[in-house]
Every structure is written in structure tokens, then in C-alpha cells.
Design brief:
Layout lengths: L5 H4 L12 H13 L5 E5 L6 H13 L13 H8 L5 E5 L6 H11 L9 E6 L6 H12 L5 E7 L7 H4 L3 E4 L5 H15 L5 H10 L4 H14 L6 H8 L4 H13 L2 H13 L4 H18 L12 H11 L4 H17 L6 H15 L5 H18 L12 E4 L6 E4 L27 H21 L1 H7 L3 E6 L2 E7 L3 H7 L2 H15 L4 E7 L21 H14 L2 H10 L9
Helix pairs in contact: 3-4, 5-6, 8-9, 9-10, 9-11, 12-13, 12-14, 12-15, 12-17, 13-17, 14-15, 14-16, 16-17, 18-22, 19-20, 19-22
């Protein structure tokens, strides 16, 4: 006898064999037992979940003389002929290849003929949505009022393509997509009955790859039997499917949470070197981060179709992320997946996207900044230290909303409306004497306190800041330099929310506002620590400059000009005439 594939050999023979569709099989059994039979049924659902098999079982139950409680016996001549597709009274028609008006006319003529020897003549029309509009119209009257000896069972994967006039004439049943656990349980029964050795992890991987289709899962299992000589293992399953194990996704997720770029690139390179499909990898990665998001929710494990050991690992990794970050990661991964086939360089796109995700985890929200600053202030007050004096005796600056006005003020005064630091600080204030050893010690102490507090507040931000070199505090600015190779650290620290947190920490520690001045030095630069180019004292203005200042002061005496400058937070740069 020739080999029969598992999908055919293990096709359900009774209603109780149909997996995951109890809401349908129970209704059909009750209808048969009560003799309340519809003349037309419509079975709707994805591929490979039992629509055609259920149609055959229903055909047998309607015609089996030995039916018991609505279930066909499966042993009589009628049941065997229907199961083998040999019955002349149960006809299976492919809607894709018999979709013309002529095909429907032939069907209408055959409907009038009584069944040869069964109780009912049953027409099973698969993929019925493929019929043409004219064919549907020709079929309507027969479908609505067929002879008493005829039953129609229509099956489709796309119910939206069926005219409403046809839908209204059928009793509709919606088949559910199967869960991985349901498929896994069935596969386990099959391998035990067939004497196939298989690891449970391998069967669960097959169940997940089938995406709700029992037929697809059985086909994959058939292929694995040929692929694996002795035993079906998890590694064999991943090798054949072109997928990677959950441990790889966990490794990437942990590296993203820690901002570990080398691990991300190395892991992705290994995946590609092993010949894995990047599109499949991206699809599985999106699902993994979706599961991470749900695992962090209360009772979220009920929504994740995975074994218990995998759920426990998911919860551990989920704790490393904020929910808001995971939501954005899943959204961005889904968008990348939808555009993947059109990307000119898929590998580069995936690498850059994973890098972006690692940065996303390090971003600081405004609420986080406020809560951390509140905790910092409370800790300083509880310690009894209060706010230490200004560092190095540096004079602070009072700056107008537009950065126009400059004057010397006490150390507890600081006004600056701009979110970004000015490109160049005004040169009126005298710089601190950088040669003073005492002042250097104070500044180094401030730097150490600053690093310690940043590390306490955010380890991810600290990892970028520690690469910098402290160059001293001058004119209300803390100067930090980065080598050419660490220019990205400077770019990251200049982000608005990161700079805000750092400068607030500085203000809390120093007792007065200090802005950050971040620079990138070339390899041949010799910028020393605790030093900066001194600000030159402003020379006495020339006659032309003095005349210009007088013109500006005169213009500001005009109430309209003054109100305009205040309204737009600007400054006068030129006065004509």
C-alpha cells in the first residue's frame, strides 16, 4: 500500500475528532438529533482548520444508517464511500475551477435527480467565494428552495467576497483558528500512535509555525519525519523551518535593554551566517516583543500561547523594559516587517532598527525626571547637607528670554528661557582662576558627585557620560569633552530630555544652575582636564559701538518698540538712521 501523508491519514472521521471547533460540532449534532436540519450550511474560517473535514462528517451523519447520537459509525458502506470520495450521492465541487454559469446550470439540473441509494444528496462546494457574480445569481433560487433530498455545504476562507443574498440563505458557522496548545496536543497523539520519537519542544515549535492550521502542522511534521533519522529535535526543527530558538530572541532583548550594541550585531551576524531567513526572524522577533509586553501585564500569561518554562523566562526579560517602550518597539517592528520586502538593504535596516530600539530603552520620560529629582531633593534634605555653595565662586549670569541682556548677579539667581544652551556665552563675567588648586579640588569633587548621582539615577545615561573627560567649570558651564570615537555619546547626551535631567542633577548638587558644554576633540587635541580657554576681558567699546548702543537705548525708550521686544522676547541688533 502506498504511503499516506499524515494530514490525510489523521483527518477527523467523527465530530469528536475535530479539534477546537466544539461550538460547531455540538450545534450540528443537536440539529441531527432533533431533525432540525437546514438546507444550506456555510463554513467560514482560515485554511487547514477542519471545514472540509467537518462537511464530510456531516454528510456521513446525515446518511449513516448506524448513526449513534448524531455521530456517524464510520464503518458502514455509506461512511466508507463518503470518506474515500467514492459516493455518487455526495459530490465535492471545487469552486475555483467550476465557477461559471454553465457549471451552475449543470448543478441545477443534477439537483432534481433523486439520490441513488442514500437518504440525502449532498453538494460540498469548496472555495465557494471563487464563483463569478453571474454564477452566484444563477445559483440563488436553487440554494433558497432546493428539493427535500438535497443539502448544500459551502466552505470558504473569504466570506466577505460572498454576496449578501447568498449569505442570507445559509446557516453560517465560523471556524476558529487553533491555538498552539491545541495543535501541540494533537501532534503528540499522532507521534505516539505512529511510534515517532520527538521532543516536546520540537512539537511546540511546529505548532507555533503552523499559525493555527492543523493541516500545516501535520505537513511540517511529515517533513520532519523525513528530515530527522532517529528523533525529531528542537534544533532539527529550527534548521528545517529556518527559524531560531527563543533563547536567541531573549539574548537580543536583554542586549537591547542594556544597550549592548556588540552583542546585538554579533547575534544578528550569527543568525545570517547560519542561513536563517531575515523576514522570518523579524516576524518571530515582533511576536517575541509582543509577548514581552503582555507578560508584564496582570494575568497576561493567559494571553500567551507558550509552555510554562517559556512564560517564566518572558516575565524575567519583560521586567527590564517599560511598558511604553515595549509598545513603541512592537509598533516599529510591525512597521518594519510590513516594509521589509521593499527594503534595498534588509540586513542594514534590521541592524539599525535594533540599535534604535536599544537607544529607546535608555530614553528618560518627563515623569521619570520629575520623580527622580523629587527623590534626590528629599535625600539631600534628609542627609542634613542642604544645598552646597556654588562651585569655584563662579559668578552666575542673568539672561533675558532671548539671551539678549547680561548682568552679574548673586549665585542663587539664574534665568534662561531657552531649552538649548547658547552657542557662545557672553564674555562680561570674569572666569574663575583655574590655577587655584583648591578650586580644582572643588570642581573634581563636583564631577565625582555628579557621576555618582547620574549612575544612581540612570545607569544607561551614565554609560554614555563616563566616556567623557571633565574639563572644568567656567562661566556657569561644565565642560566635558569626547574623543572622535565617542562623538555619538555627545549626540545622545544633547537630547533635550537627557540634558534636562543632567542639568537638574547638577543644579541640585552645586546649589546653582550649571549648563553642560559638550565638545568633541580631535585625536591630536591636547585639551587638558580642569582647564579651558579663558574668557578674554571685554575691551572698551569704540566710538561706533558706543553710538550704536546709544541708538538701541533710544529706540527702547519708544513704548511701541519696547512692547514689541517684550512680546517677541527679542533684541535690537540694528537701528537705521
Amino acid at each position: 500500500m502506498s504511503y499516506i501523508v499524515l494530514a490525510r491519514k489523521w483527518r477527523p472521521k467523527r465530530f469528536k475528532d475535530v479539534v477546537g471547533q466544539e461550538h460547531i460540532t455540538t450545534t450540528l449534532i443537536n440539529s441531527i438529533n432533533s431533525a432540525q436540519l437546514a438546507h444550506a450550511y456555510l463554513f467560514v474560517g482560515p485554511r487547514g482548520i477542519g471545514k472540509t473535514s467537518t462537511a464530510r462528517i456531516l454528510s456521513k451523519a446525515l446518511n449513516c444508517p448506524e448513526a449513534d447520537g448524531g455521530e456517524p459509525c464510520g464503518e458502514c458502506g455509506a461512511c466508507r464511500e463518503i470518506a474515500e470520495g467514492r459516493s455518487v450521492d455526495v459530490l465535492e465541487i471545487d469552486g475555483a475551477s467550476n465557477n461559471s454559469v454553465e457549471d451552475v446550470r449543470t448543478l441545477r439540473e443534477n439537483v432534481r435527480i433523486a439520490p441513488a441509494y442514500l437518504r440525502y444528496k449532498v453538494y460540498i462546494i469548496d472555495e465557494v467565494h471563487m464563483l463569478s457574480s453571474a454564477a452566484f445569481n444563477a445559483f440563488l433560487k436553487t440554494l433558497e428552495e432546493p428539493p427535500d433530498h438535497v443539502k448544500f455545504i459551502l466552505a470558504t476562507t473569504e466570506a466577505q467576497k460572498i454576496p449578501a443574498t447568498v449569505l442570507s440563505r445559509c446557516q453560517r458557522f465560523d471556524f476558529r483558528r487553533l491555538t498552539s496548545r491545541q495543535i501541540f496536543k494533537r501532534l503528540k497523539e499522532i507521534v505516539e500512535a505512529e511510534g515517532i520519537r520527538a521532543e516536546e519542544g520540537a512539537l511546540f515549535t511546529v505548532a507555533r509555525a503552523a499559525e493555527g492550521s492543523m493541516r500545516d502542522a501535520q505537513s511540517i511534521l511529515d517533513q520532519l519525519v523525513s528530515f530527522s533519522a532517529d528523533e525529531i529535535t528542537v534544533s532539527d526543527t529550527h534548521a528545517m523551518l529556518g527559524t531560531v530558538g527563543s533563547e536567541v530572541y531573549r539574548q537580543i532583548a536583554v542586549a537591547i535593554s542594556e544597550g549592548d550594541s556588540p552583542v546585538i550585531f554579533k547575534t544578528l551576524d550569527e543568525i545570517i551566517e547560519r542561513g536563517k531567513d531575515l523576514a522570518q526572524f523579524l516576524k518571530e522577533l515582533t511576536l517575541y516583543f509582543r509577548n514581552l509586553l503582555i507578560a508584564g501585564m496582570e494575568s497576561g500569561h493567559e494571553l500567551i500561547d507558550l509552555p510554562e518554562e517559556d512564560l517564566s523566562a518572558l516575565k524575567d526579560v519583560s521586567a527590564k523594559f517599560r511598558s511604553a517602550d515595549l509598545i513603541r518597539m512592537v509598533r516599529d517592528l510591525s512597521e518594519l516587517e510590513s516594509q521589509f520586502r521593499q527594503l534595498p538593504s534588509p540586513r542594514v535596516a534590521v541592524e539599525m532598527h535594533l540599535m534604535k530600539m536599544s537607544e529607546l530603552g535608555a530614553e528618560v520620560s518627563i515623569d521619570s525626571i520629575l520623580s527622580k529629582l523629587t527623590a534626590l531633593e528629599k535625600r539631600l534634605k534628609d542627609s542634613g547637607t542642604g544645598q552646597p555653595p556654588a562651585v569655584g565662586g563662579a559668578r552666575q549670569m542673568v539672561m533675558g528670554e532671548g539671551g539678549s541682556g547680561v548682568a552679574e548677579a548673586s549665585s542663587d539667581t539664574y534665568v534662561h528661557a531657552s531649552d538649548e544652551p547658547p552657542d557662545e556665552m557672553p564674555d562680561e563675567p570674569e572666569p574663575p582662576d583655574s590655577s587655584s588648586q583648591e578650586e580644582d579640588d572643588q570642581q573634581l569633587n563636583l564631577w565625582r558627585q555628579f557621576l555618582d548621582e547620574v549612575r544612581e539615577q540612570s545607569m544607561s545615561i551614565y554609560s554614555f557620560l563616563e566616556k567623557g573627560r571633565f574639563c572644568g567649570v567656567q562661566s556657569g558651564q561644565m565642560m566635558i569633552s569626547f574623543a572622535d570615537g565617542n562623538s555619538y555619546n555627545k549626540t545622545y547626551l544633547e537630547r533635550k530630555e537627557v540634558r534636562m535631567l543632567l542639568e537638574e542633577i547638577l543644579k541640585t548638587i552645586a546649589g546653582n544652575p550649571i549648563r553642560l558644554k559638550l565638545i568633541v576633540e580631535r585625536e591630536d587635541s591636547e585639551t587638558p582636564a580642569i582647564s579651558a580657554t579663558p574668557v578674554q576681558k571685554k575691551e572698551k567699546p569704540t566710538g561706533a559701538e558706543e553710538a550704536r548702543q546709544q541708538s538701541v537705548e533710544k529706540a527702547l525708550n519708544n513704548p511701541i518698540v519696547k512692547k514689541t521686544v517684550e512680546l517677541f522676547k527679542g533684541k535690537i541688533v540694528y537701528v537705521s538712521g
